[in-house]
Design goal:
Rossmann fold, 321 residues, single chain, alpha/beta
């Protein structure tokens, strides 16, 4: 995934001179996770800008650049550091199009590694996608693999509005995937049906997709159940049409999220199922999530996040209802 995002940044900076990258250590040091490797050497310090350690300053400057006609890609070194920049995200990024009746927009990408699984410290492992998605006017995208990460980053940079691009760092180097030579572009707001099935729909996103697919494989082997798997990819806008179509077909659904259980994206998915497919349900929609506590330190991290067995139990419970 690191290489997929890096490839998209290279391609878009080569294609459009208005695209630039900015953030802490993104230039000379090529980023904490090396996502920006090679950019500083190729495009120079005016387009790959090492900023001070000041998240509000990073995003505030990016807003000004975007309003002036540039296409900044601003990095928050970890998503847990982004809260200092929320004033700009809520007060400017989400509002300028409405505030100016469409005369101005804020075409920037706010990149942030998020989620757990890498034995990090406090403020490094949160999964707060629902918080950003709650802001009208902001798009929130979460890739699940190298190929869709590259295609979605390309789409995010070209989008006319602000896109919060959340990168599941547990997936950064967890697996490889073939990525075509030619550039690809995915639609923001479109989910992907990873595999089709007829008895149960499982919906997830980000790093949880691989765990979900492992659990689905176990259930299908033991129960011969036909399971459909949906990778949301875009949290906001959300692809309600694909969700509803699948649930109307299967009649049963489980939603898997890395975030704490309450007030999360899974809750919104369930609400939309109630709005669009309630009468097709044969069981309550299941929800597999982390606990409603602050993400613990790495010694207890694996007991906090949903595991393959948790997802498997959630699926069996819904199938047996």
């Amino acid at each position: 995934m690191v290489q997929g995002i890096n490839l998209a940044l290279h391609e878009e900076m080569q294609r459009d001179p208005k695209v630039l990258v900015m953030g802490q250590d993104v230039g000379v040091n090529e980023g904490v996770f090396r996502v920006t490797a090679g950019l500083h050497a190729k495009f120079g310090e005016t387009r790959v800008i090492d900023t001070p350690l000041a998240e509000s300053g990073i995003l505030g400057t990016a807003v000004g650049m975007a309003l002036a006609g540039l296409r900044p890609v601003a990095e928050m070194q970890f998503s847990g550091f982004s809260y200092l920049a929320l004033g700009h995200l809520e007060g400017h990024c989400s509002r300028y199009r409405a505030r100016t009746h469409g005369a101005l927009s804020v075409p920037l990408v706010l990149r942030m590694p998020y989620g757990g699984g890498v034995r990090a410290l406090e403020h490094h492992s949160e999964s707060r996608e629902a918080m950003f998605a709650h802001l009208p006017g902001i798009k929130v995208v979460i890739p699940s693999g190298p190929r869709n990460a590259r295609a979605l980053m390309t789409a995010a940079i070209q989008d006319p509005d602000t896109v919060v691009f959340m990168e599941p760092k547990h997936s950064y180097r967890a697996f490889r995937e073939d990525v075509p030579e030619e550039p690809e572009l995915m639609d923001i707001g479109k989910a992907h049906v990873v595999q089709e099935g007829s008895e149960l729909t499982v919906i997830t996103w980000g790093a949880m997709l691989r765990k979900t697919l492992e659990a689905v494989s176990e259930v299908q082997a033991k129960r011969e159940a036909s399971v459909e798997v949906i990778d949301l990819l875009s949290i906001s806008p959300m692809d309600t049409k694909t969700i509803a179509k699948s649930v109307r077909k299967t009649g049963r659904c489980v939603v898997v999220q890395e975030a704490p259980r309450s007030f999360g994206t899974a809750s919104e998915v369930i609400a939309r199922i109630n709005d669009t497919a309630l009468m097709y349900l044969e069981a309550p929609v299941g929800r597999v999530a982390s606990f409603d506590i602050v993400t613990p330190y790495f010694a207890r991290e694996q007991n906090y996040f949903p595991g393959v067995e948790d997802i498997r139990r959630g699926m069996i419970k819904t199938l047996d209802y």
